[in-house]
Amino acid sequence: MAQTHTARLMDGTRLAARIIETSSAAAEDIRRRTGTAPCLATVLVGEDPASVTYVQMKRARCAKAGIQSRHVALPASVGTADLVHAITELSQDPGVHGILLQHPVGPHIDERAAFEAIAPDKDVDGVTMRSFAATAFGLPGFVSCTPAGIMRLLDEYGVELAGKHAVVVGRSAILGKPAGMLLLGRNATVTYCHSRTADLPSIVRQADVLLAAVGRPRFIGGRDIKPGAVVIDAGYNPGNVGDVDFETAKDRASLITPVPGGVGPMTIAVLLAQTVQAAAHQLNVT
Ligand code: NAP
């Protein structure tokens, strides 16, 4: 009789709930001891429906966890200088402990300048150059939320990274690039792939740990998954579809993240955890 194999699911929803529960207790402790609840400022440029939904979701999760949020909505027509000004004000406001600029912000804006207006100790989304450098150097600091969430999932499921070949498909500043740095920091041998990579499938087939962070539905098929590989699918495409073809990949992988319910919930959980951490630091709660 033919053997059938199905990968074990990496349950991001369950782990995220646990992280949020811990953050919520820490937020309450901060509020009790200082009289001030942690506060996350969200900045939204324009009314892109997906961005509006993401911000609403993040604020709702904050409220449930006892984290206040302050929302700054700016018109799509806002220029770089006014956006930088609004973020600088939040950076200087002692009542705000963390700042999230929902991105993308629109092609007419210098997004890097806007990110860099976030004070380093309020960069709970881990988007500034300083946070990236700390991640790359393995120093303390805020980590981009999705890569940090991925590492927590890998740890939760006891994935050994040292000496493993980790292939990261995608090199964005907030996802692929920092994720590769974190994997490198854990002694994986890391290969980055991107849109100019030649013969991508031959590299993907070597991955002991595969991270798909591309933004193309079912871009990586099961036949290119090395048997027994750990597959992390960060992709989130219309119709709740990941970057990996789950149905075929699950028959080859040893562990795999579902979409939805894998990486997605972890991103928000890390955002809340880092907001509480920022508040504790700024309010001198140890
Ligand atoms: P991005 O900025 O658009 O970057 C996509 C990356 O994929 C780029 O590095 C690009 O290469 C690479 N790529 C595009 N086409 C490719 C191809 N044909 N072959 C190989 N590489 C290719 O996207 P992102 O922000 O990193 O997001 C990636 C995915 O993750 C999206 O589905 C997004 O929705 C999802 N995401 C999920 C979460 C979450 O919380 N779950 C958070 C963030 C993002 P080049 O650099 O050469 O252009």
UniProtKB/TrEMBL annotation:
<dbReference type="GO" id="GO:0006164">
    <property type="term" value="P:purine nucleotide biosynthetic process"/>
</dbReference>
<dbReference type="Pfam" id="PF02882">
    <property type="entry name" value="THF_DHG_CYH_C"/>
</dbReference>
<comment type="pathway">
    <text>One-carbon metabolism; tetrahydrofolate interconversion.</text>
</comment>
<keyword id="KW-0658">Purine biosynthesis</keyword>
<keyword id="KW-0486">Methionine biosynthesis</keyword>
<feature type="domain" description="Tetrahydrofolate dehydrogenase/cyclohydrolase NAD(P)-binding">
    <location>
        <begin position="144"/>
        <end position="282"/>
    </location>
</feature>
<dbReference type="GO" id="GO:0004477">
    <property type="term" value="F:methenyltetrahydrofolate cyclohydrolase activity"/>
</dbReference>
<keyword id="KW-0521">NADP</keyword>
<dbReference type="GO" id="GO:0005829">
    <property type="term" value="C:cytosol"/>
</dbReference>
<dbReference type="InterPro" id="IPR036291">
    <property type="entry name" value="NAD(P)-bd_dom_sf"/>
</dbReference>
<dbReference type="InterPro" id="IPR046346">
    <property type="entry name" value="Aminoacid_DH-like_N_sf"/>
</dbReference>
<feature type="binding site">
    <location>
        <begin position="170"/>
        <end position="172"/>
    </location>
    <ligand>
        <name>NADP(+)</name>
    </ligand>
</feature>
<dbReference type="InterPro" id="IPR020631">
    <property type="entry name" value="THF_DH/CycHdrlase_NAD-bd_dom"/>
</dbReference>
<protein>
    <recommendedName>
        <fullName>Bifunctional protein FolD</fullName>
        <ecNumber>1.5.1.5</ecNumber>
        <ecNumber>3.5.4.9</ecNumber>
    </recommendedName>
</protein>
<comment type="similarity">
    <text>Belongs to the tetrahydrofolate dehydrogenase/cyclohydrolase family.</text>
</comment>
<keyword id="KW-0028">Amino-acid biosynthesis</keyword>
<keyword id="KW-0511">Multifunctional enzyme</keyword>
<keyword id="KW-0554">One-carbon metabolism</keyword>
<comment type="function">
    <text>Catalyzes the oxidation of 5,10-methylenetetrahydrofolate to 5,10-methenyltetrahydrofolate and then the hydrolysis of 5,10-methenyltetrahydrofolate to 10-formyltetrahydrofolate.</text>
</comment>
<dbReference type="Pfam" id="PF00763">
    <property type="entry name" value="THF_DHG_CYH"/>
</dbReference>
<keyword id="KW-0560">Oxidoreductase</keyword>
<dbReference type="GO" id="GO:0004488">
    <property type="term" value="F:methylenetetrahydrofolate dehydrogenase (NADP+) activity"/>
</dbReference>
<dbReference type="GO" id="GO:0000105">
    <property type="term" value="P:L-histidine biosynthetic process"/>
</dbReference>
<dbReference type="GO" id="GO:0009086">
    <property type="term" value="P:methionine biosynthetic process"/>
</dbReference>
<comment type="subunit">
    <text>Homodimer.</text>
</comment>
<dbReference type="InterPro" id="IPR020867">
    <property type="entry name" value="THF_DH/CycHdrlase_CS"/>
</dbReference>
<feature type="domain" description="Tetrahydrofolate dehydrogenase/cyclohydrolase catalytic">
    <location>
        <begin position="10"/>
        <end position="125"/>
    </location>
</feature>
<keyword id="KW-0368">Histidine biosynthesis</keyword>
<dbReference type="InterPro" id="IPR000672">
    <property type="entry name" value="THF_DH/CycHdrlase"/>
</dbReference>
<dbReference type="InterPro" id="IPR020630">
    <property type="entry name" value="THF_DH/CycHdrlase_cat_dom"/>
</dbReference>
<dbReference type="GO" id="GO:0035999">
    <property type="term" value="P:tetrahydrofolate interconversion"/>
</dbReference>
<keyword id="KW-0378">Hydrolase</keyword>
